[in-house]
Amino acid sequence: MSGLDWAVLAAALAFFVLYGVLRGGRHQDVEGYLLAGRQMRWGSITLSIIATQASAITFLSTPRPGLRGRMRFVQFYLGCRSR
């Protein structure tokens, strides 16, 4: 990686940490943090669960087919049909 790549990575990580510290300081207890003060609607919760599942599946199952050059698994996320 070049120096520019490292700079962009460091800036992104710093932004994520700063954003988390600023936004996360609102919660006073663990229940408020973990359950969002019970203020989330069902649609937001559903999207969060789907995103978490897709992220975990992608992280665990895609490196091997991707390294082999077979990227057909992407069709499931894009809703494409196999030919």
What attributes does this structure have?
83 residues; 69% helix; mainly alpha; flat
Helix/strand order = HHHHH
Largest sheet, strands/sense/barrel: none
Model regions low in confidence, pLDDT < 50 over at least 5 residues: none
Report how far the terminal alpha carbons are from each other.
Answer: 37 Å
Please state the average pLDDT score.
Answer: 78
- Structural class label: mainly alpha
Number of strands: 0
Strand content: under 5%
Count of runs of 4 or more consecutive helical residues: 5
Shape: flat
- Rg of Cα set: 18 Å
Binned, the helix content reads 55-70%
What does this protein look like?
The chain is mostly helical and 83 residues long. 69% of the residues lie in helices and 0% in strands. The longest helix is centred in the first third of the chain and has 22 residues, at 3-24.
List the helices and strands and how they pair.
Elements: H1 3-24, H2 30-34, H3 42-61, H4 63-67, H5 74-78
Short structural description:
The protein is mainly alpha-helical.
